[in-house]
Design a protein that fits this description.
This protein folds into 2 domains: about 120 residues, Enolase-like, N-terminal domain (Enolase-like, domain 1), CATH 3.30.390; about 240 residues, Alpha-Beta Barrel (TIM Barrel), CATH 3.20.20. The protein is α/β, with parallel strands linked by helices.
Protein backbone atom coordinates (compact mmCIF):
# COMPACT_ATOMS: atom_id res chain seq x y z
CA UNK A 1 0.00 0.00 0.00
CA UNK A 2 1.52 3.31 -1.04
CA UNK A 3 0.80 6.80 -2.33
CA UNK A 4 1.08 6.80 -6.11
CA UNK A 5 0.68 10.53 -6.71
CA UNK A 6 -0.28 13.80 -5.06
CA UNK A 7 -1.92 16.30 -7.39
CA UNK A 8 -2.74 19.86 -6.41
CA UNK A 9 -4.13 23.03 -7.85
CA UNK A 10 -5.82 26.34 -7.18
CA UNK A 11 -9.43 27.23 -7.90
CA UNK A 12 -10.99 30.69 -7.95
CA UNK A 13 -13.84 31.35 -5.54
CA UNK A 14 -14.11 34.96 -6.64
CA UNK A 15 -17.21 36.79 -5.46
CA UNK A 16 -18.54 40.32 -5.10
CA UNK A 17 -19.25 39.76 -1.41
CA UNK A 18 -17.28 41.43 1.35
CA UNK A 19 -17.17 41.50 5.11
CA UNK A 20 -15.98 44.34 7.31
CA UNK A 21 -12.33 43.56 6.66
CA UNK A 22 -11.81 41.92 3.25
CA UNK A 23 -13.55 41.34 -0.05
CA UNK A 24 -13.44 38.13 -2.05
CA UNK A 25 -12.59 39.54 -5.46
CA UNK A 26 -9.34 37.54 -5.68
CA UNK A 27 -10.03 34.63 -3.31
CA UNK A 28 -8.77 31.16 -4.20
CA UNK A 29 -9.02 27.69 -2.70
CA UNK A 30 -6.34 25.02 -2.84
CA UNK A 31 -7.29 21.48 -3.85
CA UNK A 32 -5.40 18.22 -3.32
CA UNK A 33 -5.97 14.68 -4.63
CA UNK A 34 -3.95 11.77 -3.19
CA UNK A 35 -4.03 8.65 -5.34
CA UNK A 36 -3.26 5.29 -3.72
CA UNK A 37 -2.43 1.90 -5.21
CA UNK A 38 -5.53 0.42 -3.56
CA UNK A 39 -7.91 -0.57 -6.36
CA UNK A 40 -11.63 -1.01 -5.81
CA UNK A 41 -14.23 -1.61 -8.52
CA UNK A 42 -11.47 -1.31 -11.08
CA UNK A 43 -10.33 2.16 -9.99
CA UNK A 44 -7.66 3.39 -7.56
CA UNK A 45 -8.94 4.96 -4.36
CA UNK A 46 -8.31 8.71 -4.21
CA UNK A 47 -8.57 11.03 -1.21
CA UNK A 48 -9.65 14.63 -1.72
CA UNK A 49 -8.89 17.73 0.32
CA UNK A 50 -9.18 21.49 0.01
CA UNK A 51 -8.65 24.74 1.89
CA UNK A 52 -11.43 26.65 3.57
CA UNK A 53 -12.59 30.05 2.39
CA UNK A 54 -10.89 33.16 3.67
CA UNK A 55 -7.31 31.97 3.12
CA UNK A 56 -5.71 31.76 -0.27
CA UNK A 57 -4.49 28.54 -1.91
CA UNK A 58 -1.08 27.50 -0.59
CA UNK A 59 -0.07 25.28 -3.50
CA UNK A 60 3.55 26.41 -3.41
CA UNK A 61 4.06 24.90 0.04
CA UNK A 62 2.32 21.70 -1.01
CA UNK A 63 4.46 21.44 -4.15
CA UNK A 64 7.89 22.27 -2.78
CA UNK A 65 7.80 20.80 0.75
CA UNK A 66 4.85 18.70 1.83
CA UNK A 67 4.08 16.49 -1.17
CA UNK A 68 7.74 15.56 -1.82
CA UNK A 69 8.18 14.48 1.81
CA UNK A 70 5.16 12.19 1.66
CA UNK A 71 6.14 10.72 -1.72
CA UNK A 72 9.65 9.91 -0.45
CA UNK A 73 8.41 8.34 2.80
CA UNK A 74 8.73 4.62 3.35
CA UNK A 75 5.75 2.30 3.66
CA UNK A 76 6.43 1.87 7.39
CA UNK A 77 6.46 5.64 7.88
CA UNK A 78 2.98 6.06 6.38
CA UNK A 79 0.97 3.00 7.42
CA UNK A 80 -0.71 2.05 10.68
CA UNK A 81 0.59 -0.75 12.90
CA UNK A 82 -1.49 -3.37 11.10
CA UNK A 83 -0.14 -2.21 7.75
CA UNK A 84 -3.60 -2.11 6.20
CA UNK A 85 -4.27 1.64 6.01
CA UNK A 86 -2.61 5.01 5.98
CA UNK A 87 -2.12 6.71 9.34
CA UNK A 88 -2.75 10.49 9.08
CA UNK A 89 -0.92 11.05 12.38
CA UNK A 90 2.27 9.48 11.01
CA UNK A 91 1.86 11.37 7.73
CA UNK A 92 1.46 14.61 9.70
CA UNK A 93 4.83 14.05 11.37
CA UNK A 94 6.44 13.50 7.98
CA UNK A 95 4.97 16.71 6.55
CA UNK A 96 6.27 18.77 9.48
CA UNK A 97 9.82 17.39 9.46
CA UNK A 98 12.42 20.17 9.51
CA UNK A 99 9.73 22.81 10.02
CA UNK A 100 10.40 25.27 12.82
CA UNK A 101 7.63 25.86 15.39
CA UNK A 102 5.60 29.05 15.28
CA UNK A 103 4.53 31.08 12.27
CA UNK A 104 1.24 29.27 11.85
CA UNK A 105 0.08 30.99 8.67
CA UNK A 106 -0.11 29.57 5.17
CA UNK A 107 1.83 26.44 6.17
CA UNK A 108 -1.03 25.33 8.39
CA UNK A 109 -3.45 25.80 5.48
CA UNK A 110 -1.30 23.65 3.18
CA UNK A 111 -0.96 20.89 5.76
CA UNK A 112 -4.70 21.05 6.42
CA UNK A 113 -5.59 20.38 2.80
CA UNK A 114 -3.38 17.28 2.59
CA UNK A 115 -4.54 16.10 6.02
CA UNK A 116 -8.17 16.26 4.79
CA UNK A 117 -7.31 14.18 1.73
CA UNK A 118 -5.52 11.58 3.86
CA UNK A 119 -8.49 11.15 6.21
CA UNK A 120 -10.82 10.89 3.20
CA UNK A 121 -8.58 8.19 1.73
CA UNK A 122 -8.25 6.29 5.03
CA UNK A 123 -12.03 6.15 5.46
CA UNK A 124 -12.51 5.03 1.85
CA UNK A 125 -10.02 2.19 2.35
CA UNK A 126 -12.17 0.99 5.27
CA UNK A 127 -15.26 1.64 3.11
CA UNK A 128 -17.00 3.68 5.81
CA UNK A 129 -17.89 7.36 6.26
CA UNK A 130 -15.21 9.47 7.87
CA UNK A 131 -17.42 10.20 10.88
CA UNK A 132 -17.63 6.47 11.63
CA UNK A 133 -13.86 6.08 11.31
CA UNK A 134 -13.41 8.93 13.80
CA UNK A 135 -16.04 7.58 16.19
CA UNK A 136 -14.40 4.14 16.12
CA UNK A 137 -11.00 5.60 16.85
CA UNK A 138 -11.88 8.23 19.44
CA UNK A 139 -15.39 7.57 20.87
CA UNK A 140 -15.85 3.79 21.03
CA UNK A 141 -18.02 3.97 17.92
CA UNK A 142 -20.51 6.58 19.20
CA UNK A 143 -21.79 8.78 16.36
CA UNK A 144 -24.00 11.86 16.25
CA UNK A 145 -26.05 11.07 13.14
CA UNK A 146 -27.72 14.50 13.25
CA UNK A 147 -25.46 17.56 13.27
CA UNK A 148 -26.52 21.12 14.17
CA UNK A 149 -25.81 23.64 11.39
CA UNK A 150 -26.43 27.35 10.97
CA UNK A 151 -26.53 29.41 7.78
CA UNK A 152 -23.70 31.94 7.44
CA UNK A 153 -24.48 34.79 5.07
CA UNK A 154 -25.54 38.39 5.39
CA UNK A 155 -22.47 39.63 3.50
CA UNK A 156 -22.29 43.10 2.05
CA UNK A 157 -23.02 43.15 -1.69
CA UNK A 158 -23.00 46.16 -4.03
CA UNK A 159 -26.46 47.67 -3.91
CA UNK A 160 -27.79 45.19 -1.37
CA UNK A 161 -30.65 46.72 0.63
CA UNK A 162 -32.84 45.53 3.50
CA UNK A 163 -35.43 43.84 1.24
CA UNK A 164 -32.60 41.89 -0.40
CA UNK A 165 -31.28 40.85 3.00
CA UNK A 166 -34.78 39.81 4.00
CA UNK A 167 -35.09 37.66 0.89
CA UNK A 168 -31.75 36.01 1.61
CA UNK A 169 -32.70 35.11 5.18
CA UNK A 170 -36.10 33.87 4.07
CA UNK A 171 -34.29 31.51 1.71
CA UNK A 172 -32.25 30.07 4.59
CA UNK A 173 -35.30 29.56 6.77
CA UNK A 174 -37.24 27.94 3.94
CA UNK A 175 -34.24 25.64 3.33
CA UNK A 176 -34.45 24.27 6.87
CA UNK A 177 -32.07 26.44 8.90
CA UNK A 178 -33.19 27.91 12.21
CA UNK A 179 -30.16 30.06 13.06
CA UNK A 180 -28.32 32.51 10.80
CA UNK A 181 -25.25 34.73 10.90
CA UNK A 182 -24.70 38.11 9.25
CA UNK A 183 -21.76 40.47 8.91
CA UNK A 184 -21.41 43.69 10.86
CA UNK A 185 -18.87 46.51 10.98
CA UNK A 186 -18.84 47.25 7.25
CA UNK A 187 -21.36 50.07 7.55
CA UNK A 188 -22.18 52.54 10.36
CA UNK A 189 -23.63 51.14 13.57
CA UNK A 190 -27.13 52.53 13.03
CA UNK A 191 -27.31 50.89 9.60
CA UNK A 192 -26.12 47.55 10.95
CA UNK A 193 -28.69 47.74 13.74
CA UNK A 194 -31.41 47.98 11.12
CA UNK A 195 -29.95 44.93 9.41
CA UNK A 196 -29.89 43.00 12.70
CA UNK A 197 -33.46 43.96 13.51
CA UNK A 198 -34.58 42.89 10.04
CA UNK A 199 -32.97 39.46 10.43
CA UNK A 200 -34.27 39.03 13.98
CA UNK A 201 -37.77 39.72 12.69
CA UNK A 202 -37.32 37.04 10.04
CA UNK A 203 -36.12 34.37 12.48
CA UNK A 204 -38.63 35.36 15.15
CA UNK A 205 -35.94 35.35 17.84
CA UNK A 206 -32.73 37.45 18.17
CA UNK A 207 -31.22 34.44 19.94
CA UNK A 208 -31.12 32.75 16.53
CA UNK A 209 -29.04 35.57 15.01
CA UNK A 210 -25.25 35.70 15.27
CA UNK A 211 -23.17 38.67 14.09
CA UNK A 212 -19.59 38.66 12.82
CA UNK A 213 -17.23 41.66 12.72
CA UNK A 214 -14.30 39.69 11.22
CA UNK A 215 -11.77 41.34 13.52
CA UNK A 216 -12.53 44.85 12.27
CA UNK A 217 -12.73 46.81 15.53
CA UNK A 218 -10.29 48.21 18.02
CA UNK A 219 -10.97 47.15 21.61
CA UNK A 220 -12.69 50.46 22.31
CA UNK A 221 -14.86 50.15 19.21
CA UNK A 222 -15.71 46.54 20.02
CA UNK A 223 -16.87 47.54 23.48
CA UNK A 224 -18.95 50.38 22.03
CA UNK A 225 -20.61 48.02 19.54
CA UNK A 226 -21.03 45.39 22.25
CA UNK A 227 -22.96 47.85 24.40
CA UNK A 228 -25.26 48.52 21.44
CA UNK A 229 -25.69 44.81 20.66
CA UNK A 230 -26.24 43.56 24.21
CA UNK A 231 -29.97 44.43 24.46
CA UNK A 232 -30.76 42.21 21.47
CA UNK A 233 -29.72 38.98 23.18
CA UNK A 234 -27.94 37.66 20.09
CA UNK A 235 -26.71 34.09 19.56
CA UNK A 236 -23.13 35.38 19.60
CA UNK A 237 -20.89 38.35 18.79
CA UNK A 238 -18.06 37.02 16.62
CA UNK A 239 -14.47 38.17 16.16
CA UNK A 240 -14.91 41.71 17.42
CA UNK A 241 -11.14 42.38 17.32
CA UNK A 242 -7.91 40.92 15.97
CA UNK A 243 -7.99 37.21 16.88
CA UNK A 244 -4.48 37.31 18.38
CA UNK A 245 -5.29 40.15 20.80
CA UNK A 246 -6.01 37.88 23.74
CA UNK A 247 -5.86 40.60 26.38
CA UNK A 248 -8.25 42.66 24.28
CA UNK A 249 -10.80 39.83 24.38
CA UNK A 250 -10.45 39.75 28.14
CA UNK A 251 -11.33 43.45 28.26
CA UNK A 252 -14.40 42.94 26.07
CA UNK A 253 -15.90 40.11 28.13
CA UNK A 254 -15.72 42.30 31.19
CA UNK A 255 -18.31 44.52 29.51
CA UNK A 256 -20.16 42.30 27.05
CA UNK A 257 -21.96 39.60 28.98
CA UNK A 258 -23.54 37.85 26.00
CA UNK A 259 -21.77 35.01 24.15
CA UNK A 260 -18.62 35.78 22.17
CA UNK A 261 -17.27 33.58 19.37
CA UNK A 262 -13.76 33.47 17.95
CA UNK A 263 -11.00 31.12 16.83
CA UNK A 264 -11.40 30.73 13.06
CA UNK A 265 -8.10 32.56 12.53
CA UNK A 266 -6.14 30.60 15.13
CA UNK A 267 -4.11 27.95 13.32
CA UNK A 268 -2.53 25.80 16.02
CA UNK A 269 -3.21 24.19 19.37
CA UNK A 270 -0.72 26.54 21.02
CA UNK A 271 -2.47 29.65 19.68
CA UNK A 272 -5.79 28.33 20.95
CA UNK A 273 -4.27 27.52 24.32
CA UNK A 274 -3.06 31.10 24.61
CA UNK A 275 -6.58 32.30 23.84
CA UNK A 276 -7.98 30.07 26.59
CA UNK A 277 -5.29 31.14 29.05
CA UNK A 278 -5.39 34.87 28.43
CA UNK A 279 -8.57 35.77 26.52
CA UNK A 280 -10.99 35.66 29.44
CA UNK A 281 -13.44 33.50 27.47
CA UNK A 282 -16.17 31.77 29.45
CA UNK A 283 -16.75 28.03 28.92
CA UNK A 284 -20.41 28.33 29.94
CA UNK A 285 -21.41 30.63 27.05
CA UNK A 286 -18.69 31.44 24.50
CA UNK A 287 -17.97 29.54 21.25
CA UNK A 288 -14.72 28.40 19.64
CA UNK A 289 -14.55 28.26 15.84
CA UNK A 290 -11.18 26.76 14.92
CA UNK A 291 -11.33 25.37 11.39
CA UNK A 292 -9.45 22.05 11.01
CA UNK A 293 -8.88 22.68 7.31
CA UNK A 294 -6.99 25.90 8.10
CA UNK A 295 -5.18 24.78 11.25
CA UNK A 296 -2.95 21.83 10.34
CA UNK A 297 -5.88 19.48 9.83
CA UNK A 298 -7.76 17.00 11.96
CA UNK A 299 -4.59 15.63 13.55
CA UNK A 300 -3.91 19.00 15.17
CA UNK A 301 -7.61 19.51 15.91
CA UNK A 302 -7.67 16.39 18.10
CA UNK A 303 -4.82 17.89 20.12
CA UNK A 304 -6.75 21.14 20.43
CA UNK A 305 -9.80 19.27 21.72
CA UNK A 306 -7.65 17.47 24.30
CA UNK A 307 -6.23 20.79 25.45
CA UNK A 308 -9.72 22.28 25.76
CA UNK A 309 -10.86 19.34 27.87
CA UNK A 310 -7.87 19.87 30.17
CA UNK A 311 -8.98 23.49 30.59
CA UNK A 312 -12.59 22.64 31.44
CA UNK A 313 -14.17 23.30 28.04
CA UNK A 314 -16.87 21.06 26.61
CA UNK A 315 -16.50 19.97 22.98
CA UNK A 316 -20.05 21.28 22.55
CA UNK A 317 -18.65 24.82 22.63
CA UNK A 318 -16.76 24.11 19.37
CA UNK A 319 -18.57 25.01 16.13
CA UNK A 320 -15.92 25.23 13.36
CA UNK A 321 -15.68 27.87 10.69
CA UNK A 322 -15.66 26.82 7.04
CA UNK A 323 -19.03 25.31 6.21
CA UNK A 324 -17.52 22.22 4.58
CA UNK A 325 -18.10 18.47 4.68
CA UNK A 326 -14.87 17.78 6.57
CA UNK A 327 -15.99 19.63 9.70
CA UNK A 328 -19.45 18.12 9.34
CA UNK A 329 -17.91 14.65 9.69
CA UNK A 330 -15.78 15.83 12.60
CA UNK A 331 -18.88 17.12 14.37
CA UNK A 332 -20.64 13.77 13.88
CA UNK A 333 -17.66 11.59 14.72
CA UNK A 334 -16.09 13.55 17.58
CA UNK A 335 -19.27 14.96 19.11
CA UNK A 336 -18.51 18.67 18.83
CA UNK A 337 -21.24 21.31 18.91
CA UNK A 338 -22.09 21.63 15.22
CA UNK A 339 -20.92 23.20 12.00
CA UNK A 340 -21.16 26.35 9.95
CA UNK A 341 -22.89 26.22 6.55
CA UNK A 342 -22.58 28.45 3.48
CA UNK A 343 -25.69 27.88 1.36
CA UNK A 344 -25.24 29.71 -1.92
CA UNK A 345 -21.86 31.20 -1.00
CA UNK A 346 -18.33 30.28 -2.23
CA UNK A 347 -19.53 28.21 -5.17
CA UNK A 348 -18.70 24.51 -5.12
CA UNK A 349 -16.73 24.89 -1.88
CA UNK A 350 -19.77 26.05 0.11
CA UNK A 351 -22.36 23.66 1.48
CA UNK A 352 -22.54 19.89 1.72
CA UNK A 353 -23.59 16.93 -0.44
CA UNK A 354 -26.37 17.27 -2.97
CA UNK A 355 -28.66 15.15 -0.78
CA UNK A 356 -27.87 16.99 2.47
CA UNK A 357 -31.03 18.83 3.40
CA UNK A 358 -31.23 20.59 6.78
CA UNK A 359 -34.41 20.19 8.80
CA UNK A 360 -35.09 22.25 11.92
CA UNK A 361 -31.44 23.28 11.92
CA UNK A 362 -29.94 19.78 11.70
CA UNK A 363 -28.45 17.66 8.91
CA UNK A 364 -28.68 13.87 8.82
CA UNK A 365 -25.33 12.32 7.98
CA UNK A 366 -24.84 10.36 4.76
CA UNK A 367 -23.48 6.81 4.58
CA UNK A 368 -21.16 7.62 1.66
CA UNK A 369 -17.57 6.41 2.24
CA UNK A 370 -14.95 8.97 3.19
CA UNK A 371 -15.93 12.63 3.36
CA UNK A 372 -18.48 12.19 0.58
CA UNK A 373 -17.09 14.77 -1.81
CA UNK A 374 -18.35 12.52 -4.60
CA UNK A 375 -21.90 13.31 -3.42
CA UNK A 376 -21.37 17.03 -4.18
CA UNK A 377 -21.59 17.12 -7.97
CA UNK A 378 -20.09 20.57 -8.56
CA UNK A 379 -17.16 19.94 -6.21
CA UNK A 380 -16.21 16.49 -7.49
CA UNK A 381 -16.09 17.90 -11.03
CA UNK A 382 -13.37 20.32 -9.88
CA UNK A 383 -11.31 17.46 -8.49
CA UNK A 384 -11.75 15.38 -11.63
CA UNK A 385 -9.96 18.11 -13.56
CA UNK A 386 -6.81 17.14 -11.67
Amino acid sequence: MKIVSIKYGSESIRSDIRNAFVDFSEMTAGIVAIESDVVRNGKPLVGYGFTSNGRYAATGIVKTRLAPRLLKASRADLLNEEGNNFDPFKAWDIMLRNEKPGGHGERSVAVGSIDMALWDLAAKIEDIPLYQLLANRFREGRVNRRVYVYAAGGYYYPGKDLPSLRDEIRGYIDAGYESVKIKIGGVPLDEDRKRIETVAEMTGDPGRVAVDANGKFTVAEAIQWGEALAPYGLKWYEEPIDPLDYAGHAEIVEVYKGPLATGENLFSTIDTRNLIRHGGLRPDRDYLQMDPALSYGLVEYTRTLEMLTDHGWSHQRCIPHGGHQFSLHIAAGLGIGGNESYPGVFGAFGGFGDDAQPAAGYIEMSDAPGIGIETKSDLIEIFRKL
